Amino acid sequence: MRLLLAQADASFWAPFLRALVFDAPHNTQTVLCGTMMLGAACGVVGAFLLLRKRSLVADALSHAALPGVCVGFLIATALGFNGRSMVALVPGAAAFGLLGVLAVHLLTRLPRVKEDAAIGIVLSVFFALGVVLLGIIQKLPVATKAGLNHFIFGQAATMSAADATTIGVTASLAIIACALMFKELRLICFDSRFAESLGWSSFLLDGVLLAMITALTVVGLGAVGAILMVALLIIPAAAARFWSDRLTVMILLSAVMGALACHAGTAASAVMGDLPTGPAIVLACGALFIVSMLGAPRRGLVAVAWHRHRLNRTVARQHLLRALYEHAEIMDDDAAIATEVDLSHRRTWSSAQLRRLASRLVRGAEVDRVDEGYRLNDRGRASAARIVRTHRLWEHFLNTQADIAPNHVDRAADDIEHVLSDELIRELEADLRGRGTIEEGVFVPHSAHALTRSPRPASLLT
Amino acid sequence: MSTTFLTQDVPVLLAAMLASAACGLIGCFLVLRRMSLMGDAISHAVLPGIIAAFLLTKSLGTIPVLIGAAFIGVITAALSELIRRLGRVEPGASMGVVFTVLFALGVIMLARIEHTTAQGVHLDADCVLYGTMENVLWIDPPDSFSKMTDAASWRFFPPQIITLLVVLLLDLVFVIALFKELRITAFDPGLAAAQGISPGLMHYLLMTFVAITTVASFEAVGSILVVAMLIVPGVAAHLLTDRLSVMLWLSVIIGVAASATGYGAAAALDLNAAGMIGVMLGVLLTIIAVFAPRHGWLARRSSAERQTFGTTVSPSFTVGGERGE
Prior knowledge:
A: mainly alpha; ABC transporter involved in vitamin B12 uptake, BtuC; 19 helices
């Protein structure tokens, strides 16, 4: 059994690894180069498309290209050329792709037609037209018609060296164009109004972007197919967005991920005969997306959850320290012991929560546990004083400058005091001193509202 | 009565009309909620759901397929929402990620099935895309009106049509029973929430029905044309009226009319019927977009001209007298 597994493994992994390092049959190498170039270019252009919030225009475009392919084929055949050649199909697909984009634009100018509906209409109606034309072609008595429907699902395995060259040249041109117009494209992505004030027409630049997408879609149709072409334009860009807030980094990552996904997908499908290339590439893209969404350092879900957890802990700690400090203030005794009941009246803590928080502070040697409650020690009092000071400065600020009534500031202050920077606190203090709101020479200012032992109304107490 | 009329024309036409009626009904709400592309996404994403149902039950029984589709429809909607909210990804892109990956998964599963099952299952990528309208056949129909009442002649009545009929009825019950809730959540989700109607629940219910309707129509018209049937009639109807109930009726009528004329044209010219229906929907939409009484291109152009030359002032501009002074 184990031997069998090892054999099965070897039969998959060895050729897969060989395909990954380009040590594969010549045909596979051609396909690898072609799809990787396509993936990289789609990653670059897709990044701009994502930032322009127009990802799904690619969907409309790739479907709209289908009738174009058919029309190109029909015209070339009628003129007596080989209808399957790229020379015939590319102009047709490009013309219909742009027609589709134009139709989306015109439809959205109608009242009540939103962009999503316009995209849906264009992609389905154009595709329907393509299906009708495909039906006509299928009835034609010409030999070259076979394989036209590969433009829907793609057939990367049959990519010829000439096809790979076409893809490579188109992809390189698109990347170079993006590099040359980087500044302008960045402007319309982030601030199209500003771009227009500088004299750049966002309509024109959008047009350039769409023309590049059309070109890539048209040459990519044969490799990954109309439906999955859209994945290459959207997924690597969306995945790269998790990793960086810098456009250049994001674009580079997007290109690398596009190429990587194409690489892995093509290699896997070269090894497993019944694994179609286009869908394999899309699955590889999906895997990259999941990894990025979960694991990216700052925007990834794990990082965000961890950060939130840390923040919650910090906030809870600060609340408890302040509660202990203010309790001592009310009792007018630094060594006052706060019982669990005293503390739970100050916040909506359950007793289990309170015990957990307190024991964390006890472990941190900031609070002493005394038989019937808790007491701040010297270290704890120093940190609590800083926290209370920040809270009260912010309260005073809200009270005097933001017109929030004294009995409301406590909660309002709560939201933001935990994230104030030291510099801001110093500024706040200087400002409030200048206005005479707080006294000179006191580290912890007085509270903006009256402190009572149980801030909750008596009726709520049992 | 020619023999092909009952065996072929009637079933196909009936299937197309039922599919477009069901899609038109549900599609209105997608259009109003600005979620038209959810129809596109779900119609692609249901593919793995159908195949999973097939693998589990070893048959293409209607009920398992519909359940699988409904399940995956809700998954698609939920995943898109999850990625949009948690990953702060733009809504269009999050949908694009989900449906392309699910569709790719479906295509791969299909390829494996074709590879492993020797007996030809009539489930391949082409039939998902284009539909298999020509398979909707009524073998051995009654050859005279007197036999119409004979149960034996209904034995081979195409099951696809029965499925579509049931789904259309389900959609009707859904829309009629929850009309108020659907309307409020479509136009004002905030108000709906304030009145105790959960917009989230309505969202996922709607997605379930979109998925069921899509799959039932799939077999007849294919995945892309389902998108046309979902979106185009709703948009066209919305250009004609301001009332939701009227919009729903108009949407169904437009869908059925496109199915009838599209099928007629395809039969006359010997073209692909499903494709022609989609093209016909596009033609109808174009006509309505140009000639619609208030929101059409012509009407708006003439009202813009009137305003430019000041011969008539539309009432909305004189109310309160803020303008024109």
